[in-house]
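An instance follows:
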Amino acid sequence: MRRALRIFAVAAIGALVVALGFLAMLVFPASPKPANGLHFAGFIPLPKQGGVVSILDYLTVDGSRLYVTSVTSGDVYEVPLSNGALPAPGMVKVVPGAGEAHGVAVDPASGLAFVTRSKANHVDVFDPSSRRTMKSIAIAEDGDGAIFDPIHKLVYAVNGDPGIATLIDPVSQTSVGTIALGGKPEFAAFDPQTDLIYQNLEDKDAVAAVDVGRRAVVGRWSLGPCEAPTGVALDTAHRRLFAVCSKNALLVVMDLASHRIVASLPIGGGPDSVAYDAVLGRIYATGKSGVLSVIQQDRPDAYRILDTVKLHFGAHTLAIDPATHRVYAAYASLFTPPRLAVFDAVR
């Protein structure tokens, strides 16, 4: 009996040590190790707005600003961008709001920003200069990603569970219609060559081509072998679409002319977002497992893994600053303030 108790005690202590080690890693994330294509430039701490856990969502680069949304606090963080020293904590500003914050789209004409808020079921309009919320626009439930359509000059915001896109006129600051997408939308990307929006449909393992002017889906193609596509990015010069697949941890490449999958590569688990640097020919993807995959495009149909960088559990979204080629990845946090990991591209 005593031997059994000793074995149980040793096992319990071992489990406690492992749990404390995992907890320590969540609370105090280590700096990423050196990589071939990336140099770790440091962390940008974001203001902590209360609560034990902080979960960040979409990252949106707009000129000299990076917007980072928080699901847990509802805040939108406004981070100044540069190619030099990282901003000090006091330089990061906060746009508060009610409801989980998700996608941000900016109207270039007025400079106003629009952020989707699930739970509250509205889109907030705010002035980035004053960080003052000017109006709330009611939308359907489960508001998620948002982009700006520069041709039709509308904010395109998706609603996940209803399977629709809501169109918002930034001038009147009103909803001017919806588009039935035929599936649950995730990330979307605007194609300046065709004026179409390519919209991933997570529950259909497909991508849809959306014509905002016609208020209709004008094409839909399978992304197989991709399961549950989330993030999407475009190489407009070579007419390639990149989608990451959350269920089977793949990046797939589609030829937009033939609508065929021309390449697929294994990446980190639970991938959520993907970004493409057209100048360097690099694709970056990250997901819930906290692995940043760096993929080099050698030719339009030839790709190779350049780096697999361990970040932090829950670091599932990223963005590229096209002016500096800097990569920003959002970390979740436990007890401590949330943060962004910043990388400079090694050429």
